[in-house]
Amino acid sequence: MAATTFSPSFSTPSLNSSSRAHKTLTNPNLGFLASVSRSLRSLKATRLTTDNACGSAMASRMVSVPAVQTHISLDFETFVFKKEKVSLAGQDEYIVRGGRDLFKLLPDAFKGIKQIGVIGWGSQGPAQAQNLRDSLADAKSDIIVKVGLRKGSRSFDEARAAGFSEENGTLGDIWETISGSDLVLLLISDAAQADNYEKIFSYMKPNSILGLSHGFLLGHLQSKGLDFPKNISVIAVCPKGMGPSVRRLYVQGREINGAGINSSFGVHQDVDGRATDVALGWSVALGSPFTFATTLEQEYKSDIFGERGILLGAVHGIVESLFRRYTENGMSEDLAYKNTVECITGIISKTISTQGMLAVYNSLSEEGKREFETAYSASYYPCMDILYECYEDVASGSEIRSVVLAGQRFYEKDGLPAFPMGKIDQTRMWKVGERVQKARPSGDLGPLYPFTAGVYVALMMAQIEILRKKGHSYSEIINESVIEAVDSLNPFMHARGVSFMVDNCSTTARLGSRKWAPRFDYILTQQALVAVDKGTPINQDLLSNFLSDPVHGAIEVCAQLRPTVDISVTPDADFVRPELRQSGN
């Protein structure tokens, strides 16, 4: 069999902002506006009304532009699955659709693999181990899915409760699991990967496959001038949602032809030509509705950045800033909480998930649209300011280094005490949130508050623009900036609260939120809200760009690939990792 290929090609987007060509989407079945203008708009050419602007420094920042990168168009070849071409905002990209009807192809995709070792029981480990086990059982495959944990881990009991056991060879020590597996899915924390990668590599069999669900380890190795051993294949399948949502939707999709969380996949090294189909099989087995190609480097840049932006850190900062503003201006605490947290995690997310960002704006009254426009115009560039800095910190390796160093501070060293992450949920806002959530009627999505909507959508659009100018594919941009937020994280935050997520999600995301949320809070308070109070005129070009941005059409295409099932999250939904449980502290 010929080697499976995975090859990137590059194209440079048009950046002529003064005479933007109209792009026509030719598929008659897409059901959205076919002709869009101002595609791939330039950040540097926005015309600003400066009569009441926030000073020359602010104006200078508004015309700054991130360096434009070439768009990476990733093509791949698969011998097992059907590859499809989709057009997203005029760019051709390639995907593989999922579905339970494809489980029968898993033995072919996993040819030569007798054991899959799932290392770790954190956010992704439980979901991926169970989904893989169940999918392979459905395919009547004899491939063993074995969970590997460190000796003495409190997670052994939870793994046993999920059906894994030492007696049937599906649960064991981390090192024996790695050495005995043909495909090793390394799902321990990023900091633990950075601390243990040398030992992990030494235990892997030659010609085995290392699977990652995050490109963090590559970024860490690059920062040290290293790479992976050359006698193993290295792949990634990265669900665009946290582990509990990966499992929850998989279970919900059993009665239909599957439901789940979209995934990206990448092939960093392929020693024997199997890597692409193994990665695609892994993604299909997880229940991914569609899988798109990326590189490990593009993945970790967009993912670590996204966690600090729209997915968690920026949302945390936004709601803190707006709650404080609303209450200071006389709004009751309960209503302020509903108009910030409940609004974003409920009705806004539901609307974007099913109808897109424009539907949020179009559903408002004329007065509501003016409030939205005021908030959007004032917030877009301040949000972009912090997002731009954050992306470059990730891309340069600075943020990865920060995560590694923070992990080391969790323990005593150099004669200094340990500093594990503390909780954020005891402040006034989050105690109000507990009261509001307890009183909330079942199914209540909260109010659509126009000002909050304008700030949140401005953040989302600013993140999309940063990723677009940095050369990421539309599949990656939309999944990282829109779908993961509204279809995975926000529903869990609606059920349990933003503070609960900040206190209990992955270590890397929790660290990022604590570091970057205050930056979004402060810049909105010090610049965006000041501009609103000063009566700074609405930037009409900015609003026009939003209304005509080609990303809306691309989101519509992705929405058509969305499963028919909405994630169902109960108010007591548990996604706390074992080491964070109160009983274990």
TrEMBL record:
Question: Mind listing the GO biological process terms from this record?
Answer: isoleucine biosynthetic process; L-valine biosynthetic process
* Alphabetized InterPro entries for the sequence: 6-PGluconate_DH-like_C_sf (IPR008927), 6PGD_dom2 (IPR013328), KARI (IPR013023), KARI_C (IPR000506), KARI_N (IPR013116), KetolA_reductoisomerase_plant (IPR016206), NAD(P)-bd_dom_sf (IPR036291)
Q: Which domain of life is it from?
A: Eukaryota
Which of this chain's residues are annotated to bind Mg(2+) 2?
A: D303, E480, E484
Return the cofactor note field. Answer: Binds 2 magnesium ions per subunit.
Name the cofactor(s): Mg(2+)
Which residue stretches does the UniProt record annotate as biased composition, category Low complexity?
A: 1-19
Q: What's one GO MF term for it? A: protein homodimerization activity
Q: What is its EC number?
A: 1.1.1.86
Give the enzyme's main class according to its UniProt record, as a single word.
oxidoreductase
One GO cellular component from the entry?
mitochondrion
Domain (KARI C-terminal knotted) ranges: 295-443, 444-580
Could you tell me which residues belong to the region Disordered?
1-21
Ranges of residues in domain KARI N-terminal Rossmann: 96-294
Principal cellular location given in the protein's record: plastid
Pathway per its UniProt entry is:
Amino-acid biosynthesis; L-valine biosynthesis; L-valine from pyruvate: step 2/4; Amino-acid biosynthesis; L-isoleucine biosynthesis; L-isoleucine from 2-oxobutanoate: step 2/4
**Catalytic function, reaction form:** (2R,3R)-2,3-dihydroxy-3-methylpentanoate + NADP(+) = (S)-2-ethyl-2-hydroxy-3-oxobutanoate + NADPH + H(+); (2R)-2,3-dihydroxy-3-methylbutanoate + NADP(+) = (2S)-2-acetolactate + NADPH + H(+)
Residues that bind substrate, according to the entry? S365, S506
Q: What protein family is recorded? A: Belongs to the ketol-acid reductoisomerase family.
PANTHER family per UniProt: KETOL-ACID REDUCTOISOMERASE, MITOCHONDRIAL
Q: How does it assemble?
A: Homodimer.
Could you identify this protein by its name? Ketol-acid reductoisomerase
Name the source organism: Gossypium darwinii
